[in-house]
Amino acid sequence: MTATSGDQNGARWRFVAVRALSIVGGGLARERLVSMDAHDRSYRYEFPPDAIPFPVRTYVATIRVRPVTSSVHTFVEWYGDYDCDADVEDEMREAFLSCYSAFTADLAAYFGL
């Protein structure tokens, strides 16, 4: 994560967060943080338009966590909005669902669940 001053006296800051992802089958992709909302317990990220590793024109994903009030568990919602040609729509839906399933499984494993 890098921070750059938003004005001369440094009173405002802009944070830029980019992470690298390994892609199954080889390759590396970059994701850029678009927004983070502590109150909503969510963040959104995108593949930069010049570096989308899938046959889609745009891609923005959201991850949101919610407490399950009847227990000490947390509900994780992870989804993406993307634009692609109709002939690859089913393939992209399956690819992204597979990614979200793997990501949430990794998250559960990290917390020992």
Broad structural category: alpha+beta
Number of helices: 1
Average predicted confidence as pLDDT: 83
CA-based shape: globular
Strand order of the largest sheet: 3-4-5-6-7
Q: How many runs of DSSP E, i.e. beta strands?
A: 7
Query: Biggest β-sheet: count, sense, barrel?
Result: 5 strands, antiparallel
Helical residues, percent: 10-25%
Q: Gyration radius, to the nearest Å? A: 17 Å
- In percent, how much strand structure appears in the residues? 35-45%
Q: What is the subunit arrangement here?
A: single chain
N-to-C CA distance: 28 Å
Brief summary of the model shown:
The chain is of the alpha+beta class. It is 19% helix and 42% strand. It has one helix at 89-110, and strands spanning 2-5, 13-16, 18-22, 28-37, 42-46, 58-67, 74-83.
Structure notes:
- With 113 residues, this protein is an alpha+beta fold.
- The protein has 1 helix and 7 strands.
- The strands form 2 sheets. A 5-stranded antiparallel beta sheet has the order 3-4-5-6-7, covered by helices on one side. Strands 1-2 form a two-stranded antiparallel sheet.
- A hairpin with a 5-residue loop joins strand 3 and strand 4.
Question: Keyphrases for this structure?
Answer:
113 residues; alpha+beta; 5-stranded antiparallel β-sheet; two-stranded antiparallel sheet; 1 helix; 7 strands; 42% strand; globular; disordered N terminus
List the helices and strands and how they pair.
Layout lengths: L1 E4 L7 E4 L1 E5 L5 E10 L4 E5 L11 E10 L6 E10 L5 H22 L3
